[in-house]
Amino acid sequence: MKFLRWVGLAALALTVGGTAQAATVKIGVVLPFSGPNADLGHQIDKAFDLYVKLHAKDIAPHKVEIIKRDEGPPTGAIAKTVTTELITNDKVPLVTGFVFSPSAIALAPVINKAKVPMIIANAGTAWITNLSPYIVRLSFSMWHPAYPMGAYAHKKIGCKTAAVAYTDFPPGKDSVEAFKTGFEKVGGKVVLSIPMGPPTQVPDFTPFMQRVKDAHPDCLYGFIPSGAHATGLMKAYGEVGLRKAGIKLIGPMDLIPDNKLQDMGDAAIGTIVMGHYAVDLSNPQNKAFQAAWHKEYGPNSYPDFMSAAGWDTMHAIFDTIKKLNGDLSNGAKVVKAMEGWSTNGPRGHVMIDPKTRDIVEDEHAMEVYRKPDGKLGERILDTTKAVHDECKILKVGRCK
Amino acid sequence: MSHVATIAVSILFDGLAYAMFLFITSVGLSVTMGLMGFVNLAHGAFAMAGGYFVVSLTRSLGLGFVPSLVVGSTAVGLISIPFERYLYRRLYKSTDLEQVLLTIGLAFMSIAVFTYFYGPIPKSVPLPDWLEGDVNLGFRAFPSYRAFLIVLGAALISVLWYAFEKTNIGAKIRAAVDNRRMAESVGINVDRLFTLTFALGSGLAALGGALAIQLFGLTPSFAVLYLVLFLIVVAVGGLGSLKGTLLAALVIGIIDTGGKYAFPVAGNLFIYAITVIVLLIRPAGFYGRD
Q: Do residues A115 and A54 share a domain?
C-alpha cells in the first residue's frame, strides 16, 4: 500500500513537472458565426482550424486549446461581452479573430486594462491599431488597398471623375477617405458620395445605383462588407446597367470575395479591385494553401482574402508560442515577439511593422475575367510591393 | 422628357417593384394577424424556406426559375399546414407573449436548420435570359427583373382581390375577420378557413422570399432580418386588410426608394418617419379597425 502511494506521488510529480514544460496555450477566437455575415467568420475559422491541424507538431511539446465565441452582429456589443468573458473567466492569454471594426474598437479599452494581446485577423479600420499597444493586426488597414487604388484608378483605369458608395460604418468611411485622398492627390475628382445604409442588413441597392448612373462619373468606387452585401451590390450594379453606361466598378477586394465570385455572373466581369489576395495568386505558398484547403473542405469551397489573413494570423501566433516557449502570460512580451515577424504566406511576403504593429504586404490590382474553363477568375494587372498603412504615414484624422 | 421627370419615373418604377416584393411577402402576415389575431414572427422563416427551395430546385434539379417559384411556394404552403394544425392552433387563445415566444423560437430554429444544410454563404439563383437584361422604354432602360416583379405583383393583386371580394371563400374569410363567433354560428368552418389562409399566406411569403434573392441575396438570417420591415407594412396598412397592405407597401416602397435616391445620408429615416406619422394619425393603420 505504502509503495503504491509513493508511486502515485511520483507519477503526480512527473505530470506536474511535465506540464510546466509543455504548456497548453488557450487561444480565444472571436468570429461571427451567426447572422448575415456568418460566412465571413467561417472563412477565417476554417483557415484557423486548418493551420492548427497541419501545424500542431510545430509547437510540440506545447499545445493550443482553441475556445471559440460568436462575435455577433457588426455592432461590437456582443463581441465585447464574449471577449471580456474569455479574458476574465477562461483566462485566455491572447484573443484573435475579429471580423468587424466595431468589435475591435469597442474592445480596445478592455484589452488595455487586461493587457491581453488582441491579434486581429480582419477588422480593417485604419486607426484601430492606435487604440491600444496590445493590438497587432495581421490582416490589412482599409488604406492598404484603397489608397494606392486612388492613383491607379486615375492613371491606369482612366477614371477622371468617380462616385463613391459605401456601407455606412467605420471601415466604409475609412476606405472611401483613403481612396479619395489617393485619388485627389493625382488630380481625380470625387463627384458623388453615397452612404448605403448600415452593415446589419443588405439594402435594396437599386436606388443608389440609379443615383450613380444619373451622375455619370467615369468610375464607381464601392465599399461593402464582403458578405451578403457584395452579391447584392454586384447584382444591382449589373441590373441598373452601369457597366453598359460606361461606369467602371472599382474598389477593394471586398467587392469580389473569392467564395462568392462564381455566383456573381457576368456583371462582375471587368471589375477592377485592389487587394492583397486572390485565389489565383501564383506564389508556391498559395498553391500549397489552396491544395490543403480543397483537400480539407472539398473542391467547391474556396478560401478568400480573409482566410489568407487568418492563416497568417495563426502562423504568427504559433511562431510566438515557439519563440516564448509556451509562456504567453506577459502580454507586452507577446506583442514584442510579434513585432517585426515576417513570413512568406499565401499572400506573398508579409511583415508586422514594429512601429505600428500593423501589417506590411503587397497590393495587387486585379481584374475579373472569364477563364477558359468558364469560371470567373482574377487577373493580376499590377503589383505594388511592401505597402504600409498610409493613414498612419500621412497621419490622417484618428491615425495620428 | 425632362431630366427631373425621368428621375421621377425611374424612382416610381424602382419603388413600385420594391413595393410589390413588400406586398407579396407581407400580405400573408397581415391576413394571419387580422384573421386569427395571431402574432406570427416565423413568417420570415417561411419566406426564407421558399427562397432555399427555389435555390435547390433551380441549382440542383435544373428546373426553370418561374416553375421553381410555383413549386417552391406551393411546397412551403403545404408544409405550413401541419405547423398551423399542431403548433399554432394550440396558442390561438394564448397571450401575445406566448405566441411571440413560440414563433420567434421557430424562426431561430429554422435559421439553425437551414445553416446546417445550406451553410451561411449567400445563395443566388440562375435567372432565365429574359429576366437578366433590361427593357428599353425609349427615354430610359429598366431592369427586366424589376418589370417582372411589377407584372407579377399586379397579377397577384388582381387574383387576390377577386378571390377576396368576389368568391364564396373570400366572403367567408371577410366574415370571419369581422366577427368570428357570428361567422361560426352561421355554419362557416372557421378552423378550416384559418388553415387555408395560413397556407396561402405562407406560400405567398415563400414566393416573396424567392423573389428577394435577386435583390438581397439569400442567407438563413433572412428569416428575421427583414421581419421588422414586414411588420411595419402590416402595421401601417392595418391588420387583415388587403387594401391596406397594398397601400402601405406602395407608400413605403416608393418613399423609401425616393429617399435613398435623393437623400442617401438619411438612411432608413424615411421608413420610420412614415410609420410614426401614419400610426400617430391612424393608430390602427390605413384600413385597420380600432
A: yes
